[in-house]
Amino acid sequence: MKWITREHPKIDRIACPWLIRRFIDPEAEIVYVPYEQVITSAKELGATPFDLPGVEFTHYGDKCTFDYFIEKFDIQDPVVHTLAPIVRGADTDQHELALECPGLWAVFCGLAHNVTDDYELLDKGMVIYDALYSWAKYHKGERHTQHTVERLLIDVYNKYLKYGDSKKVPEWAKELKALIQDQIDTNLSLNLKDVSQNLDINPSYLSREFSKYFDNLSYGEYIRKLRIEKAIGLLTSSTYSLTEIAYLTGFSDQSHFTRIFKQHTGKTPSAYKKNFNKGRLK
C-alpha cells in the first residue's frame, strides 16, 4: 500500500505512518509532497492521501487522523488507545487531554527543526513512537524517582491526616499539615497582596488590570482554572482517589473540589473520568 500526505510532518503525519506500519501494513510506502501536489500525486502513484482536508483519512470534529485510522481499521490494541489522546492532544493543541501531550509536541517540534529531510524525520519519529508505545505498555505509572514530592504528600496524608480524626491530633501533626498545605498551594493559591508586593504594583491596579492579560478572568477565577486543569490531568492519568486529588490541588475537601469542578466543566469529577475512560476504549 502507498500512502501520501503533506511534507514537513510533525505529530499526526508521523504517528499515522507508525500506526500503518505497525498495525496495518508493515511494508507500506509513505510519500511526502508539497500540499498542493498531494491529490495529483496520489492519483499518479495510486496512493491514498491522508491528513488533508477533503479526503477520507483526516480530522473529524476534535479527533485527529490518528483517531480515524484506529476506527477505520478497528485497531483494538489497548496500548494504541492509550496513545490516541496523547497524539490527539499534541496535534490539536488540546494539551489537557493527557499530561504527555505538551512533551510529545515539544519533542517533535524540536526534531522537525533539526531534521529537514522528511524521510529521515519519519525514521527517527518511528523510533520515538515505538518508545512511547513501550512506555505505555510496560512503564505507564512508573516514576523516575522512587518518592516524588506528590507521592510523599499522599503517603503522609494517608498515614497521619486521613485517619487521624479518632484521636487528639498532636501539635507536630498540625504543623506538618500546615507545612504540607503550603507546599500543595504553591503557585495555585498565591496571595494577590504578596504578588503585588513582589511586582511592586498597587494591588487594586493589579486586580483591575489582571483580566486583560489572563484569559479575561479575574485573579481568583484564573487560579481556580489552574487548579481544575491540574485536577483534570490527575483524573485522567493517575489512580488517585477524588479525595487525594482534591488534597493535591489545594481544595479544602472533596465536596468543595466536586462543586468547583462541576461549575467549570459541567460534570462531576467522577462523571468526567468515566466519560474520558469510555472515550479511550472506543
Automatic annotation (TrEMBL):
Gene3D superfamilies (alphabetical): Homeodomain-like
PROSITE patterns: HTH_ARAC_FAMILY_1, HTH_ARAC_FAMILY_2
The keyword S-adenosyl-L-methionine is annotated on this UniProt entry: no
One Gene Ontology molecular-function label: DNA-binding transcription factor activity
Residues in the signal sequence: none
Domain of life: Bacteria
Matching PANTHER family: ARAC-FAMILY TRANSCRIPTIONAL REGULATOR, HTH-TYPE TRANSCRIPTIONAL REGULATOR EXSA
Protein name in UniProt: Helix-turn-helix domain-containing protein
Species name: Chitinophaga agri
